[in-house]
Amino acid sequence: MKMDLAIETENLVRIYGKGDSGIKALDGISIKIPKASTYGLFGPNGSGKTTLISILVGLLLPTSGSAKVLGFDVVKDSVEIRRRVGLLPEGFGFYDNMTALENLVFLATLDKIPLDQRNRRALEALETVGLKDRANDKVSTFSRGMKQRLGIAQALLKDPELLIFDEPTVGIDPEGAAEFRNLVKRMNREGKTILMSTHLLYEVGMVCTHAAVIRGGRLLVQGGVEELYQSVREAKGYRYELRVKPSGEMLLQEIKSISGVIEIRQSENGVTVLSKKEIWGELLTLVSKPQFKDAVESLKPIEPSWDEIYRFYQEGG
Amino acid sequence: MISDALSIARKEFTDTITSKRLWLIVGVLLLFSVASTYSTIFQTITAFQQAGRPVASVFSAIATTMAYMAPLLGIALAFDAVSGERERGTLRILLSRPIYREDVINGKIISALTVISLATTISSLAAVSISILLHNVAVTIDDIARICLFIVFSIVLSFAYYAFSLFISTLSNKSSHSLIISIGIWIFFAFILSVISSLIVTAVLGPPPMRSFQAFNMFRRQPGNFTPSSMFPQEYLDYMRKEAEISSMIQAFSINYHYTQITSLLFGYATRPIEFGQGGRTLVSIPTVISTRLIDIVILIVFPIIFLFASYMVFTRRQEK
Known about the structure:
The complex is a heterodimer of chains A (317) and B (321). Chain A is globular and about 75 Å long. The two termini of chain A are 27 Å apart. Chain A is α/β, with parallel strands linked by helices. In chain A, α3 packs across α4 and α4 crosses α5. Chain A is 36% helix and 28% strand. Chain A contains eleven helices and 15 strands. Chain B has one domain (2-317). Chain B has helices at 2-17, 20-43, 45-50, 54-78, 83-88, 90-95, 101-135, 141-171, 175-205, 210-220, 234-251, 255-267, 273-277, 286-292, 294-317. Chain B is mostly helical and 321 residues long. The chains are: A alpha/beta (317), B mainly alpha (321). Chain A binds chain B through residues 50-51, 54, 57, 59-61, 79-80, 82-83, 87, 89-97, 106-107, 109-112, 151, 154, and chain B through 4, 7-8, 11, 15, 18, 88-90, 92-100, 319-321.
């Protein structure tokens, strides 16, 4: 079955400069972002995330390759794309001499929002990001975190079907970042597609349904978050954490005999079981046996961390 | 789309007229215009009235002020027009809207042209009003036509510097760089080029003949003295003619020079010692001004067009990450 895609790129290349001194910022990126997904674009600084986003909204032209956003070609139909996409660019700013509301109403004009709706839509966007009380304050009085939230508000103005956030939590405090993640989850539940670039690994795991890892302008991996976990699990082994009472020595012997178990080692939180294959079902059956029931304090699978996922794919997957 | 450009122009216009920077420049322009008018009226107008051209005398003083201030107005409006948006990150927000890049630059140009026109017209009208109020200067239809032309040429001069500074601003990522380059060019055209011209004249022709120079200085000390140039020794007149030729060739590179050439003929004031010697200029008809100064007018108009086009090309082709 063909997937309904919000964004699709094919072998995108972008080179800055000309000739031998040209720098390849994107080197054949092909990504597929399903509609209604929250897609995390992860990579270190300078990996090409902002270049990719700039191409997707028509601010930069690709050197070669093609890309479609909501079915529109990024080269030919960039205005149509920007009509439908809410973008929070990296390093953006507002007119400090204007109030938050004036800034948004001005941007709403350029977004072609009808005159009679501009004020209402601006206030709604401010309310969504928790800035309605500061609507009539000049932006020059805003903290960095408030400006970041105002940036999110301007992206929401036209109620877009696709939102693109470039490093959205840079400069905001942990509380603000948590609020932002909740907002992203809420918007995703409302059916919006969200593409979010970040260099913070934990952010991807917290909010994304899909993710891609890029480095040096190359796509290392992409897919559903669960698929990415699975690939690492399959390659590095499945891990389970078990807390047993001193009477649980027999249980550990039984676990060791399960087919696929490679190793059982002591860890800070108890015992870690490493297996070549998924043994969650076997473990549950074992610990529910009457002779081991009282020996187990806790049992849980350990998901690979995003740091592990990143290192895994960086090393070639 | 024109509606997007107008939306940007409206916002730019509001920003500009509420900015301290604009009011500082307009204030200085007004102050100098009023001061020039006032001092002209009480110092030299009698002589000009005798020559039958009181408004021309007032505007000859204002034209000198305008030649210095109009470029500053243009630079003040343009130096951070694009680079400032880039620095503040507002350009990224603007360009993320469903608009074309040309709408951004068109909006800025429309706004700047409106502000320049208003500031120039208000300053000129203030000078006329003061002339009428303080000295009951009679303003004729011909005077009004000359003032209108003066306003148009002053707008073009200011706009020429606007276009140049805008071009630098589109190329630059820092407004401070754009400001330094723009002011540098203004200083070069308004002051340094005339100094270079004098140095070259001295190098080529040597110092002026001393006897004739003393005679000229004695002549200058008598205000309103329109003694015919035949009073001067031929040696001195030849020197001054050659000086004027060389100087004109060098200063032709300056847009300010072309503006001064037009306005000096428009209001019949002298720009060179040789012309004092010729009794100042006679006030020639407007068609004569236009036909005589056609090349200066064309250069004054073409200069901003070239830089606007260049700004347009650079900005619309530049890709912002």
